[in-house]
């Protein structure tokens, strides 16, 4: 039987009861698969890896080793939330790696978007391999592969796969949610007690804020992206857009424009707001945000984010624009 094909008879997980049943079955399966061996998991804090972590903590406790790599390109509060939820509340075996300087030093001066992506991807593997080598007796690698990853790519999508591991680090895979659709993963996450902020998290690219700080990433502009993104998210949550608008974020491009403050001319960055709806990310439409909400976000960004003198709303659909700016 091909274990990568969802049987037609499989019930769609829509309720807590169905999720509890799925969780109990998976706990048994995982225990049977791994015995008393250790399992490694790259825990980003996204929905899929978080659900896998919570499930495996229930199944095998401290035999699971979660590695959270902070590459400096995460959203405000995310690394702290991972530590709070998994280490403090679930008592997980969590290795937190502060690799911020390492990533930002490697990225310094690199303008090309694809070169930036390559550096972020390969540096992530380097950090993960270093951490894996420090551990003894790890035979398994858990991954948050979900069913659309298998359907879309006839295999496992790169962002769910710590691909490119060296030969001597070939682990057997543990993929407990690989037959689930995204909405089912969220139902399972809720049943496992994960916070709503994690379960309802919008899609976030692997290279993170790195592709929203266009051109060569600088630390000050990266902070402007992170702070403005946090303000946008906060105001969208207050307005009830969380879970309704598919993806929203800010971009700080690598150019400046003139402004004026207290009679003096300024030379500062713009912040671009983006909020889109889509079904499959192949095409996207722009959310019609009421002007009072846009003005509130504008006022907060201009008052709270340093180095910024303009706020723009990107009204371009996909195609012709992509969702991200690079
Ligand atoms: P675009 O910009 O191509 O984005 O319209 C479509 C969706 O893909 C996400 N995206 C990425 N996800 N690694 C990822 O894991 C990437 O390099 C990447 N680039 C774009 C984007 O956020 C959107 O949801």
List the helices and strands and how they pair.
Elements: H1 16-34, E1 38-42, H2 47-60, E2 64-70, H3 78-89, E3 93-98, H4 100-107, H5 113-133, E4 138-142, H6 147-153, E5 172-174, H7 182-191, H8 196-199, H9 219-238, E6 247-251, E7 257-261, E8 264-277, E9 285-286, H10 291-304, E10 308-313
Parallel strand pairs: 1-2, 1-4, 2-3, 4-5, 8-10
Antiparallel strand pairs: 6-8, 7-8, 8-9
Helix pairs in contact: 1-2, 1-7, 2-7, 4-5, 9-10
The protein binds xanthosine-5'-monophosphate.
Index terms:
326 residues, alpha/beta, five-stranded parallel β-sheet, five-stranded mixed β-sheet, 10 strands, binds xanthosine-5'-monophosphate
What's the SSE pattern?
HEHEHEHHEHEHHHEEEEHE
Q: Level of helix content?
A: 25-40%
Major beta-sheet overview: 5 strands, parallel
Q: Major sheet: order of its strands?
A: 3-2-1-4-5
The poorly predicted ranges are: none
Strand percentage lies at: 15-25%
Radius of gyration: 21 Å
Distance between the termini: 41 Å
Number of helices in the DSSP assignment: 10
């Amino acid at each position: 039987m091909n274990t990568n094909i969802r049987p037609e008879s499989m019930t769609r997980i829509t309720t807590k009861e169905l999720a509890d049943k799925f969780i109990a079955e998976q706990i048994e399966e995982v225990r049977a698969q791994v015995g008393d061996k250790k399992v490694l998991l790259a825990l980003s804090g996204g929905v899929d890896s978080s659900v896998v972590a919570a499930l495996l903590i229930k199944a095998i406790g401290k035999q699971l080793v979660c590695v959270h790599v902070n590459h400096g390109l995460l959203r405000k509060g995310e690394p702290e939330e991972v530590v709070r939820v998994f280490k403090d509340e679930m008592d997980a075996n969590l290795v937190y790696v502060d690799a911020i300087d390492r990533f930002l030093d490697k990225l310094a001066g690199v303008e090309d978007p694809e070169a930036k992506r390559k550096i972020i991807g390969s540096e992530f593997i380097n950090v993960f391999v270093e951490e894996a080598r420090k551990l003894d007796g790890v035979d398994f690698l858990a991954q948050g592969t979900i069913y659309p990853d298998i359907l879309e790519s006839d295999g496992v999508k790169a962002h769910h796969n710590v691909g490119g591991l060296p030969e001597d680090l070939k682990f057997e895979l543990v993929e407990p949610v690989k037959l689930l659709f995204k909405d089912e993963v969220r139902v399972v996450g809720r049943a496992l007690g994960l916070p709503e902020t994690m379960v309802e998290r919008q899609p976030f690219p692997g290279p993170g804020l790195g592709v929203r700080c266009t051109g060569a990433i600088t630390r000050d502009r990266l902070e402007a992206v992170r702070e403005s993104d946090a303000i946008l998210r906060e105001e969208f949550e207050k307005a009830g857009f969380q879970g309704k608008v598919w993806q929203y974020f800010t971009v700080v491009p690598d150019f400046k424009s003139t402004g004026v403050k207290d009679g003096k001319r300024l030379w500062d960055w713009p912040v671009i707001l983006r909020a889109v709806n889509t079904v499959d990310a192949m095409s996207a439409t722009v959310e019609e945000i009421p002007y009072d909400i846009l003005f509130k976000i504008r006022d907060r960004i201009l008052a709270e984010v340093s180095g910024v003198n303009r706020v723009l709303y990107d009204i371009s659909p996909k195609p012709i624009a992509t969702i991200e700016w690079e």
